[in-house]
Amino acid sequence: MKPFWFLLITFNVFVQLNSAKTEFIWCAPPRRRHHVPSGDVQLGPDLVQPVQSARDLGVFMTMRTHINNVLSLCYGSLGQIRTIKRSLPVQAFNTLDTSLVHSRLDYCNVMFVGLAACDLQRLQSILNAAVRLVTNTSRRDHITPLLRDRHWLPIKQRIDYKLCMMVHRCLHGLAPS
């Protein structure tokens, strides 16, 4: 079996390579990390060193780091929303939830395709906490009917939907060039 690994390089292709601003990260599952080459990579005349966690467009390129960051931001937002819940009309409360929590869950969520079930469950817990806050229900209530009543897709289905929409737009010439 061939080793599973690939190289991710982040830099702007329209400007000259600046090795001081260029990062790359080797991405491989833990059981295949011993196959990943060590040392610098030569890109043209420049040598670039690998990093453990890269950030591109606000997304941390180490999946665990990115998920932890999303969890932290979303739970923090939910905590802040909870403190002002009584002083807000229902529509404003729902708007805050959508803008502060759902937007963070949906941003670059196509990266989560093929993510392990335990990590998907961690992301699903944010959505569960948000729907419980919006509906004012307890942790003992079943979550599926609450999500269905609000027309909120579970995380796995949100990711699949976003991926399908991207493919549809690409196939029909609706995606940005």
Q: Key features?
A:
mainly alpha, two-stranded antiparallel ribbon, 177 residues, 6 strands, 2 domains, single chain, 47% helix, two-stranded antiparallel sheet
Describe the structure.
The protein has 177 residues and is mainly α. It folds into two domains: 6-52, no CATH class; 62-171. It contains five helices and six strands, in the order ββββββααααα. The protein has helices at residues 63-84, 90-106, 117-135, 143-150, 155-171, and strands at residues 6-10, 23-27, 41-43, 46-48, 55-56, 59-60. A two-stranded antiparallel sheet has the order 1-2. Helix 3 packs across helix 4 (143-150). It is elongated and about 60 Å long. The relative contact order is 0.09.
Report mean pLDDT, rounded to a whole number: 80
Strand content: 5-15%
How can the largest sheet be summarized? 2 strands, antiparallel
Q: What's the Cα radius of gyration?
A: 20 Å
Estimated helix fraction = 40-55%
What class do helices, strands and sheet pairing give? Answer: mainly alpha
The tally of helices reads 5
Q: Count the beta strands.
A: 6
Number of domains: 2
Distance between the termini: 37 Å
- Write down the secondary-structure element order: EEEEEEHHHHH
Query: What is the molecular shape?
Result: elongated
